[in-house]
Amino acid sequence: RGHVEVRDFGLSYPTLDGPMPAVTNASIHINPGEFVSIVGPSGCGKSTLLNAVAGFLKPTVGSVTVDGEAVDGPSAERGMVFQQYSLFPWKTVKGNVEFGMKMKHLDKASRDRAARTLLGITGLTAFENKYPDSLSGGMKQRVGIVRALATGPKVLLCDEPFGALDAQTRVIMQQILTNMWQRLKISVLFVTHDIDEAIFLSDRVYCMTARPGAIKAEIAIPLERP
Ligand code: ADP
Ligand code: ADP
């Protein structure tokens, strides 16, 4: 579960000057349960690739499959965490977390149980009735992570999730993410421009450049994990 395959991927955005290629010829894979990062400078196409795996964007060329099935639109099987949190401001913390489960028509008791467990693990229990605007950045992103995980996805997609946080909060959030990844045994695709962060967190890192042939190198991190 959670085997992602992106093959010969290219995506062009329509512009007034015609189609502008954002990514050309990128191929990556994520083995089930693997933590994989993509690093590269701003504008090289990391978010574009990630959004195609999420199903928010369609490849112009190439293919994106998860467990052998072509990605065709967003799905609760692929949870997404955004740099700017993108929480629902009119919903409480618990309401945000339960959103995806409601979409999946889970009954109230199951929603309650799943939400309470995840909120507990991530230290959000005391905040469950608060609204996102009253929370710090780190707390908002805890909610973002929990919301993405609440529906039991096979793959967690993270787009610079800690890019807006201070260094100290970042370390705490990295620990929370690593902890959730190990507990849930899901695959993670993590996008960042911080190569240190990528190496610190990942089993494998892809390096992307803005030049044609987007993926330039692949680094396996030979670390034993605790
Ligand atoms: P990164 O995540 O690595 O910063 P992006 O995937 O956001 O890179 O962007 C890749 C390229 O595509 C950039 O040149 C960016 O300006 C362009 N781009 C991104 N989104 C759009 C869009 N909606 N329309 C046109 N061009 C876009
Ligand atoms: P080393 O012994 O290799 O110099 P560090 O002192 O750099 O290790 O790292 C010690 C701790 O700092 C790590 O266990 C980790 O919690 C944190 N850390 C290291 N690098 C990063 C990074 N790029 N991003 C966030 N946290 C980091």
UniProtKB/TrEMBL annotation:
<keyword id="KW-0067">ATP-binding</keyword>
<dbReference type="GO" id="GO:0005524">
    <property type="term" value="F:ATP binding"/>
</dbReference>
<feature type="domain" description="ABC transporter">
    <location>
        <begin position="4"/>
        <end position="226"/>
    </location>
</feature>
<comment type="function">
    <text>Involved in beta-(1--&gt;2)glucan export. Transmembrane domains (TMD) form a pore in the inner membrane and the ATP-binding domain (NBD) is responsible for energy generation.</text>
</comment>
<keyword id="KW-0547">Nucleotide-binding</keyword>
<protein>
    <submittedName>
        <fullName>NitT/TauT family transport system ATP-binding protein</fullName>
    </submittedName>
</protein>
<keyword id="KW-0813">Transport</keyword>
<comment type="similarity">
    <text>Belongs to the ABC transporter superfamily.</text>
</comment>
<dbReference type="GO" id="GO:0016887">
    <property type="term" value="F:ATP hydrolysis activity"/>
</dbReference>
